[in-house]
Please model this.
Amino acid sequence: MSAPAIVVDGVSMAFEHEGSPLHVLENVSLTVTDGEFLSLLGPSGCGKSTLLRLIADVLAPTSGTISVLGRSPAQARRERNLGIVFQQPVLLPWLSVEDNVALPLRIGRWGARHPDAPAPPALLDLVGLQGFERARPAQLSGGMQQRVAIARALVNNSPILLMDEPFGALDAITRDRLNEELLRIWTETRRTVVFVTHSIPEAVYLSTRVAVLSSRPAGIRALMEIDLPYPRQPEMRDTPRFTRFTAALRNALEHP
Amino acid sequence: MTLPAAPSTPGGAVEPRSRARRAGGPVGPAKRRASGWRHSLVSIGAFLAVLAAWQGIVVGFHVPVYLAPSPLMVVRALRAESHTLLVNTWPTLIETVGGFIVGNLVAIVAAVGFVHNRTFRQSVYPLAVTVRTLPIVAISPILVLLLGNGYAPKIAIAALITFFPTLVNMADGLTAVDPQALELMHVLSASRWEVFRYLRWPTSLPYLFSALRIASTASLLGAIVGEWIGSNSGLGYLIVAATYDYRTPLLYATMAVASALALAMFGAISILERYAVSWRQPSGVGAD
Model:
C-alpha cells in the first residue's frame, strides 16, 4: 500500500498560445500511493486534465519529471500499466460493445501475448452490461456507454486507472449510480485510481485522498485525506462528517 | 452495491427502452417500409404524370418525330432496336465499370498516401487540382490520340472523372477521426497501421461511399464522352450516330438505356453502402 504508484516531481507545462506561452501547470509535485483512490479537484480548465495526460504520456512536460511504477510514462504506456477513461466514452461505433472492450487486446496482439487478460464478457458482467455484448454503442444510453469505456480500460489488467471527468457529461442520477459502481469495481479489483473531477461531493464520496488544484497556472493547493470508511453508502452524503469534508474542500478551492 | 444490484442501476433506467426497441424491432422497419412504399408511389406517380404530359403535348401539337418523339414511340424504338441497344450497351458498361474501379482505386491509394506523407500530399494535391480544372471534353481527344480507339481511352476518361471527388472525400474522411480516439490509440501504443485499420479506415467509409455514389454516375458520363470523340460502338457512339441520321426515337431510347445503366450503378453502390456502413443506420428510435 505504501510504494508510490505515480510520482510527479516539479512538473510545469506550458502550451504555445498565439505566440506566447500559456502556463497551465506550475511546479506540481504529487505522490500517488499504490492502491489509493486520488481525486484531482479543481475549477474547469485549470489543468487537471493536462496533468492526467502527462501521466498517460499523451503530452510531455515542459520541465520536471514523472515516474509511473518507477518507470517513465512512455515505458509505462508501452507496458500497458495505464488504463484511461475520458469524459466522452470514445467508443468505435462500427464495433459491437464486446469488440470495443476487446480493442486493447487486439492492438499490438496484446491479448494473444497475455492469455491471462480478463475476458471481455466477464468485464461486461462486472460493469453490469451482461446481455449487451452484441449491441452497437449507438443503442446504449450515455451511462451504459461510459460503463463500456470503463470495461475497456480494465481489460489490460493495468494497475493504474486514469479517469478524466468520466461522469461529467451524465445526469446526476446516473452519475451517482456510476459512482457506486466504480467504488465496487475499485474494491473488487484493487487498483490505483487517479480521478479528475470538478464536483466536490463526487470527490469526497469516492476518494481516499483529494488534491485541490488552483486555477491557471495550476499548482496543488491542498491535499486532504478523506477518512470515511469503505464501503461507502449513498446515505453517507447526508452525514455531518461528509459535509464537513465538502465544506473544507470548497473553502480550499475558494480561498487560497 | 453488490453484483446482483448492478444490472438494475443506470442500465435499469435504460433497459426498458432498449428492450422495447428490441421488441419494436419488427414494427419499426415495417412502418418504415410502409412509408417507403408511399414515397415510391408518389415518385412513380409524378414520373408517369410527366410522361403523360409529354405524350399529350407531342400528339396534341403535332410535333414532328425528328424533333421530339412521344414516349410511346420511344418505347417502340426500345423494342425494335433492342439488339442494337444491347450490343452498344456492353462496351459502355465495360468502360464505365473499368473507369470506376481504376479511378477510385487510384484515388483511395492517393488519399491514404496523403494522410501518411505530407510531402506526397504537397506534391500531388496541386497536380490533382490542376488536372481537375482541365475541361474533360478537351482532354478526351488527347487521350484518344495517346491511347488509340479501343477501351483504354474511355476507361481513362471515366477514371479521370471519378478520381477527384473520391480523392477529396477520402482524404477528408481519413483525417476526420475523433482526436480523443487518436489519444486512446496512443495510450494503447497502436502502430500507424493499427490506427489506420481500426480508426481511420472505418471512419472514412461513409465519406468514401458519398464519393462512390457521385462516381457511379460520373463514370458513365466519362465513358459516353469518350465514345463521342472516337468510337464505332457504345452508347456514346449510338447517340452521335442517331443524331446525325435524325433517328430521334433511337436517340431517346439510347438516353433511356444510359439513364437506366446509371441508376443501376447508383443502386448497386447504395446496396453495398448499406452493408459496409451498417453501423451508421442505428436500428430504431433515431430514425423515426
